[in-house]
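[retry 2/3] Sigma-70 family RNA polymerase sigma factor: previous attempt timed out, resubmitting with same input.
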Amino acid sequence: MTLDLALRDEILASVPSLRAFAMSLTGHPDRADDLVQDTLVRAVSNIHRFEVGTNLNAWLFTILRNLFHSEYRKRRREIEDADGSYAARLSAPPEQGARLDFADFRKALAHIPVDQREALLLVGAEGLSYEEAAEVCGVAVGTIKSRVNRARIRLAQVLAVKQGEEFAPDPTIRAALQGTSKA
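[retry 2/3] Sigma-70 family RNA polymerase sigma factor: success.
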């Protein structure tokens, strides 16, 4: 269906009502004008979907409303950052350190006796309770607790870990993430 003159005139006659509706939704004249323009573009490009004899205004208002809600959902996930100050503060820690740490962990894990490694992996990695791990291994709960404890101590020794803070980013990485110097 092509846009005939009568339909074009009817669309143009609805512009003031569309703009008033857009203003009530957005509260900003510029955004309202953009919304009306987007509505008209969408309507003209999809005029073949309009059924002659039905309410053109209702069809146009539906398009405008749907565009507004789509834009609203999109804007809700966006952050206004005209000067770029927010983006300048964003940072991500480097990933290669974690990969190296994991490789070290896997090597250290290989140095732990099999029964201790099995207990540690069942409880620590698989998330089983001590009771469940004991059932899987066919030993007493106390034996599993002892094996897990010894495995953790052995891992700490092999990895030369003395305190829990060593698992956090090092001071250089923390300073870079905060945008300050190390000193």
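[retry 2/3] Sigma-70 family RNA polymerase sigma factor: The two ends are 71 Å apart (CA to CA).
[retry 2/3] clearing retry counter.
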